[in-house]
């Protein structure tokens, strides 16, 4: 499917930095050293209740990854999916008595608009689960031929026991895995499975539900984890730099995906860094579709909030921390945007070359956006207190916050 238009990324003087980023699998920082092409796969939305501030925060984190790499003059191959067929989407369509295809299309369109407004750079490949089915079927067949998948009443399951590295993304104990599996789309209590954790690769057609030709698998639809693996391997291959998503995807989604890919290819690991963004909450609880405690980007835009202020509200929190969306967070972002805008509209200011380096250093150090904002705040305060004679500085600041932070001032 098509993605959304890219905003221009201004080139900056000087040199970009190599990104160090926290990897859930090793539990520490890894410094990534991609070649001329850096590769990243970010899990996309399941298209209903889009785009809430939790989604926006997660995509903001990975947009920064892309911007840091672009600043090093690398090309970025960024792939994102849309889970445009899955149980929760079908359940929502049924609840609201709407056609599931229409629901997915409308919500994906809204997501594109929100991403464009927030100046999130688009993926190079934006791929729906449905369009990926012809690539998914042979992978499931291959897992079966390798002895890593088995059939249960027509459904096909992956055997987690087939991957010697299973568990190495999230490092959870058996009980925690079982609980999370039940919470996040798995079926640990279904009788007949080899391991309660085994996830579904292919679900045989159910009455009243959409299904596709699955070759030797029979009619059905794909499981969730194999969807992302098929898309990632098709467009990026093994050993790409970053697999990204919110921290709620570490288990089971990214753990299972890593296992599928590792068994399929015999290579390890699928991604050099498993990167997870913290959860945004509202009223003390994780913002989630199931709870319904959502603040939507599109609603704020309709209320007249400048998307650049929404972006600054996201950037004010470190991507790995869990944080709470409040009116105060938005108010502070609106005020900051006002200060920055009036600063860059002045004819001159203090030199800003050091500021560009500070922003680069902050982002290269595990995407420390709050530190980058603080550095810009200091330049703005200095200009206000002492002025400055550098006529190129306001323009440079404006280009730097655009290129590195995605904020149009
Ligand atoms: N389609 C799958 C991924 S393949 C999915 O998880 N879709 S989603 O719509 O539920 O979420 C899209 C992205 O937003 C995921 O990376 C998820 O981790 C992230 N996300 C969801 N809720 C929050 C939240 N409250 N805070 C931060 N990120 C969130
Ligand atoms: Zn995914």
Q: If you had to describe this structure to a student in words, what would you say it looks like?
A:
The chain has two domains: about 35-275, Rossmann fold, CATH 3.40.50; about 300-405, Up-down Bundle (Four Helix Bundle (Hemerythrin (Met), subunit A)). The chain has 13 helices and 14 strands. It has helices at about 55-70, 85-95, 100-115, 130-145, 175-185, 225-235, 250-265, 295-300, 305-315, 325-345, 355-365, 370-385, 395-405, and strands at about 20-25, 30, 35-40, 75-80, 125-130, 150, 155-160, 200-205, 220, 240-245, 270-275, 280, 285, 325. The protein has a five-stranded parallel beta sheet with strand order 5-4-3-10-11, sandwiched between helices. Strands 6-7-8-9 form a four-stranded antiparallel beta sheet. The protein is of the alpha/beta class. Helix 7 links the parallel strand 10 (about 240-245) and strand 11 (about 270-275). The radius of gyration is 22 Å and the shape is globular. The longest helix has 19 residues, at about 55-70. Zinc ion (ZN) binds next to loops.
Give the arrangement of secondary structure elements:
Elements: E1 20-23, E2 28-31, E3 37-42, H1 53-71, E4 75-82, H2 87-95, H3 100-117, E5 125-128, H4 129-145, E6 149-152, E7 155-158, H5 174-183, E8 200-204, E9 220-222, H6 224-235, E10 240-246, H7 250-265, E11 271-277, E12 280-282, E13 285-286, H8 297-302, H9 307-315, E14 323-324, H10 327-344, H11 353-364, H12 369-386, H13 393-405
Parallel strand pairs: 3-4, 3-10, 4-5, 10-11, 12-14
Antiparallel strand pairs: 1-2, 6-7, 7-8, 8-9, 12-13
Bound molecules: 5'-O-(N-(L-cysteinyl)-sulfamoyl)adenosine and zinc ion.
5'-O-(N-(L-cysteinyl)-sulfamoyl)adenosine (5CA) binds at residues 43-46, 54-55, 57-58, 81, 83, 228, 245-246, 248-249, 277, 279-280, 286-288.
């Amino acid at each position: 499917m098509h993605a959304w238009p890219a905003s221009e990324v201004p080139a900056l003087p000087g040199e970009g930095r190599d990104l160090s980023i926290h990897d859930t699998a090793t539990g520490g920082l890894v410094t990534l050293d991609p070649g001329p092409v850096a590769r990243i796969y970010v899990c996309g939305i399941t298209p209903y209740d889009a785009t809430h501030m939790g989604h926006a925060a997660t995509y903001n984190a990975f947009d920064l990854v892309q911007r840091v790499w672009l600043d090093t003059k690398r090309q970025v191959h960024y792939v994102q999916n849309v889970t445009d067929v899955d149980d929760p989407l079908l359940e929502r369509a049924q609840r609201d008595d709407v056609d599931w295809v229409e629901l997915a299309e409308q919500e994906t369109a809204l997501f594109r608009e929100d991403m464009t407004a927030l100046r999130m750079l688009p993926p190079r490949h934006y791929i729906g689960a449905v369009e990926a089915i012809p690539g998914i079927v042979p992978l499931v067949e291959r897992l079966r031929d390798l002895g890593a998948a088995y059939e249960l009443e027509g459904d096909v399951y992956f055997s987690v026991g087939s991957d010697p590295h299973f568990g190495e993304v999230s490092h959870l104990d058996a009980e925690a895995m079982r609980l999370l599996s039940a919470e996040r789309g798995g079926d640990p209590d279904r009788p007949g499975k080899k391991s309660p954790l085994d996830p579904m690769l292919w679900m045989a057609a159910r009455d009243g539900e959409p299904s596709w030709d699955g070759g030797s698998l029979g009619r059905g639809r794909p499981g969730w984890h194999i969807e992302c693996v098929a898309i990632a391997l098709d467009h990026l291959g093994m050993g790409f730099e970053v697999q990204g998503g919110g921290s709620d995807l570490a288990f089971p989604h990214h753990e299972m995906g890593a296992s599928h890919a590792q068994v399929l290819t015999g290579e390890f690991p699928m991604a050099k860094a498993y990167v997870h963004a913290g959860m945004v909450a509202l009223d003390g609880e994780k913002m989630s579709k199931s709870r319904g405690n959502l603040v939507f980007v599109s609603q704020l835009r309709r209320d007249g909030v400048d998307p650049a202020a929404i972006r600054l509200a996201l950037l004010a929190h470190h991507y790995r921390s869990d944080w709470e969306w409040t009116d105060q967070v938005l108010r502070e972002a609106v005020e900051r945007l006002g200060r920055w805008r009036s600063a860059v509209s002045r004819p001159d200011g203090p030199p800003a070359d050091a500021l560009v380096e500070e922003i680069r250093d902050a982002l290269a150090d595990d995407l420390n956006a709050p530190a980058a904002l603080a550095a810009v705040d200091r330049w703005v305060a200095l200009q206000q207190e002492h002025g400055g004679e550098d006529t190129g500085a306001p323009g440079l600041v404006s280009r730097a916050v655009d290129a590195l932070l995605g904020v149009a001032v």
